[in-house]
Amino acid sequence: MSTIADVPVDHPHHRHGWWWKTLLVGFALWVVTIVVTVYTSNTNLVPTIILLGSFLVPFTVVLFVIERVTGTVSTMQLVTAFFVGGILGVLGASLLESNLRQGALVYLAVGLAEELVKGVLLVVVGWRVQPKTARQGALLGATVGAGFAAFESAGYAFNAAITTRGIDLASLLQTEVLRAILSPVGHVLWTAILGAVLFGVAHGRPRFRWTWAVPVTYVAVSVLHALYDSNSTISTVLAFVLTGTPLSAAQNGVVPSSVAGLVTTLYLVGLAVVSAIGVAVLIGVQVHFRRRARAASPQPRVPGWYDAPPPHALR
């Protein structure tokens, strides 16, 4: 029998709308920092640009989660999952990927390694979380994925900024803008799917359950991750094939201008397709477990003509 305490309620400190307000204010600060850096040529501000640009979108994901999570999850747990999970995630992934060799399957190996690390961290973070539902799992998974994305983006931004000619601010900004736009449909989305299934199969129980749905989902999100990462290579090869251009035309890895436009178009289309598949999978998982929970819960009987007393009771 359920009690009032069993019903998940919003935390009293929830204030809807802080995530988009933070996004707007943070974006304004990022732009102001860029303008001041260019005007003063003060390279000491470059780390500020890197941190703001890399963490702004992922951290707004955490605020979005804070406003919607229920049950026993506290704000401190979510912030800890974001920072500690992000740091341990990139460290663990770096160790697992250190001995990988370049090849056709390297993207799949990277996807398997990174999703494994994030999945383990998600289990640790959500071990005592109640209730365990697909919605809770998706929100916690998004938090862990956002932490991973933030620290990984900071590394990519740093590498883009440092060149033999000094600091390349244009390359830094281009990298940050691209990764900020794509981060919600990258690590955040893949770990949200895994979290939704991991928590959904628990079906409100206090502990995680083992079913084949968990490893199948892990492999599926790893494949989506691999397709997402390898999209640049796939779009380049497709552009060469579609235009009939020999692969030897690429000199030192530089794509000829005659196919560069098609490569960019195919790249964007590929990202959109993989992202759409991921969003569809996440929605499908949520709908499946919502229907399953509704079917398992007792349905209240609505009084009607079929509730009339039997004839013998009227005698």
Describe this structure in words.
The structure is a single chain. This protein is mainly alpha-helical. It has ten helices and two strands. The protein has helices at residues 18-40, 46-66, 75-97, 106-125, 134-161, 169-182, 187-200, 213-229, 231-243, 257-296; strands spanning 162-163, 166-167. It has a two-stranded antiparallel ribbon with strand order 1-2. The protein is globular and about 65 Å long. Residues 1-7 have low confidence and may be disordered.
What is this entry, summarized?
By secondary structure, the protein is mainly alpha-helical. It has ten helices and two strands; from the N terminus they run H-H-H-H-H-E-E-H-H-H-H-H. The longest helix has 40 residues, at 257-296.
Q: How many strands, what sense, and barrel or not for the largest sheet?
A: 2 strands, antiparallel
**Rg, nearest Å:** 24 Å
Give the H and E element order.
HHHHHEEHHHHH
Strand order of the largest sheet: 1-2
Name the structural class: mainly alpha
Mean pLDDT: 84
Key terms for this structure?
single chain; 315 residues; mainly alpha; two-stranded antiparallel ribbon; 2 strands; globular; disordered N terminus
Please specify the SSE layout and strand pairing:
Blueprint: H1 18-40, H2 46-66, H3 75-97, H4 106-125, H5 134-161, E1 162-163, E2 166-167, H6 169-182, H7 187-200, H8 213-229, H9 231-243, H10 257-296
Antiparallel strand pairs: 1-2
Helix pairs in contact: 1-2, 2-3, 2-5, 2-6, 3-4, 3-5, 4-5, 4-7, 4-8, 5-6, 5-7, 7-8, 7-10, 8-10, 9-10
